């Protein structure tokens, strides 16, 4: 069973497009993390959310605790945004989504 | 900017051998974690560690695995007798706050383990 589901699994966009990646979870959580995994494998934390919305540059993350759903938005996408975006939830343990592979074409 | 460092970046070992993966967390962080990612699969939680003891572990973290903080800086993952299915990228992470209200996670670059 997957405690965290992400959609879409793969996404190709033209440079400049607005992108949305979705995450739904089925367990009780204290926080949700959006992570970015580069082609070389390294992982960087983008956001940690427990409620509401956060913005950092062109990235926006929202969470709806009642609906157990979060979205990651990228405005004015750029080829350097190409990466795998992973949703992870934390309570006492960690559960990871399978990731969304994003390719932004110039 | 402070970072989590991991060594080695890649290790190749024979099945049945012991492997130790090393991590240096960010110095003022108190919570440490190991995750693994089998090639082509999702990241999986292995263990969290706080105050010199395991605070949570997953089903994957069986008796073959152990963690230790042997000194004030290193955090190690030992696999006692490696199996082929232990081949994966192993990520260390640290955070200031821990479960259940885990703060921002800082990941190392990963250690790729190949078991032959």
Structure notes:
The complex is a heterodimer of chains A (106) and B (116). By secondary structure, chain A is mainly beta. Chain A has strands spanning 4-7, 10-14, 19-25, 31-37, 43-49, 52-56, 59-64, 69-74, 83-90, 94-96, 100-105. In chain A, the strands form 2 sheets. In chain A, strands 2, 4, 5, 9, 10 and 11 form a 6-stranded mixed sheet that branches. Chain A has a 5-stranded antiparallel sheet with strand order 1-3-8-7-6, with no helix packed on it. In chain A, a hairpin with a 5-residue loop joins strand 4 (31-37) and strand 5. Chain A is globular, with a radius of gyration of 13 Å. The termini of chain A are far apart. The mean pLDDT of chain A is 94. Chain B has 116 residues and is an all-beta fold. In chain B, 0% of the residues lie in helices and 49% in strands. In chain B, the strands form 2 sheets. In chain B, strands 2, 4, 5, 6, 9, 10 and 11 form a 7-stranded mixed sheet that branches. A 4-stranded antiparallel sheet of chain B has the order 1-3-8-7, with no helix packed on it. The radius of gyration of chain B is 13 Å and the shape is globular. Chain B starts with a strand and ends with a strand. The model of chain B has no long low-confidence stretch (mean pLDDT 93). The A-B interface holds A 30-31, 33, 35, 40-45, 48, 50, 86, 88, 90-99 and B 33, 35, 37, 41-45, 48, 56, 58, 89, 91, 93, 99-107, 109-110, 112.
Q: Describe the biggest sheet of chain A?
A: 6 strands, mixed
Which regions of chain B have little confidence, pLDDT < 50, spanning 5+ residues?
none
Structural class of chain B: mainly beta
Helix and strand element order of chain A: EEEEEEEEEEE
Overview features:
heterodimer, A: 106 residues, mainly beta, 6-stranded mixed sheet, B: 116 residues, 11 strands
Give the helices and strands, then pairings.
The complex is a heterodimer of chains A (106) and B (116).
Chain A: E1 4-7, E2 10-14, E3 19-25, E4 31-37, E5 43-49, E6 52-56, E7 59-64, E8 69-74, E9 83-90, E10 94-96, E11 100-105
Parallel strand pairs in A: 2-11
Antiparallel strand pairs in A: 1-3, 3-8, 4-5, 4-9, 6-7, 7-8, 9-10, 9-11
Chain B: E1 5-7, E2 10-13, E3 19-24, E4 31-37, E5 43-50, E6 53-57, E7 65-68, E8 75-79, E9 88-95, E10 106-107, E11 111-115
Parallel strand pairs in B: 2-11
Antiparallel strand pairs in B: 1-3, 3-8, 4-5, 4-9, 5-6, 7-8, 9-10, 9-11
